[in-house]
What does this fold into?
Amino acid sequence: MNKKEIAEIKKLFNKNKCHVTRLCGCYVDAEKNVKTTLKQAFLSLEEEEMFKYINIFRGCLSGTIGKNLLNLEFPTEQEYEGGTQEFLLKLRDSRLRDDDIIEEFYDKVIAYYDYPENYYIILAHAAYDIPGITSDGMAMDDASVYVYEHIICCLCPVKLEKSALCYNAEANTIETRVRDWMVDSPLHGFLFPAFNDRNTDIHAMLYYTKKCENMCPEFMDNMFACTKPLTSKNQNITFSSIIEKTLGEECNFETVMAIHDSINEMIEEQKELPEPVVFDKADVKRLIESSGASREKIETFERSYENVMQNEVRSEDEAEDVKFVATNITNHRKFEIKTADVVVKVSPEQSHLVETRVIDGIPYLMIQINEHVELNGIAVRPDVSKNE
It folds into this structure.
């Protein structure tokens, strides 16, 4: 799913026209015991309660594609009887009215979701009459042909409120506040099936993680059995390792700066497009080639790539399919240059102000400055008289 498709579904979770039909919930304590469950028509909820659920659903569709929102595809074998996709499809098709399959779903989550505290499993069924789109991008609400029927699941921590004093208006006293268990925003969740090309795609799903470095891999493996993408941090580490191993002694400031300049240019050029900028193996090789690396170094790319991927414990086929999201492998908002003692941050547009020089055999990082310089918040004037 791309940005536009995610935004289209997210907009459906609103107080004016909600497409959710049925809601189920299961409250689990820290010892994995089910404390209570919920099953009811969504529109039968009190208005204020309904809005709180809507905010939770919207939170599960928020974030950056490739970091918080991950597009997953099911292996073919998982679509046969007994497979993970087949189970989710049965759950969706039941419209959450089959108690046995709902309990089986709860049991799977409780068994595989490793969370040390209390949490609340929220599961909802929804149906969306997909409106047609005119050539100028306007929705035609009366031209619906397909229905996107789906489920959304949110896994929310339940935390005890902090102790505090409060004013009791009835008794006109200051006293200790009663501490309640509060449902927090979701840490993980998923949307199934995916809404690809503005229609139902039962072969894929969208997975949500609030913290991009905590994807809950065991939960993902057992619940979905989809090939997991590298985390955003691991994408950065892996990409950097490929560059370093390929370039070797040619991995200098200018070459690496040229690679990141190319990536940032592509991000800027395609920022209005719904799809994120993504690099596969061939794209990474082209980046190195365009950076000015020697032919000798480029010829080592295949071997370097393979060696790095082996450290990622990936099969040969998986290594070929690895994708790097551009915003995960470069910081398009600033360049950060680190030495053992100094950190320099520069906006990408001003990266030309930084260069390296060797003076009297000693390497230096040179930064061109303008008339405005601050030292601990105090404006100072550059002293140019020393070199005059």
Q: What stands out?
A: The two ends are 60 Å apart (CA to CA). The chain has a mean pLDDT of 88. Residues 335 and 351 are 7 Å apart (CA to CA). The first helix runs from residue 3 to 10.
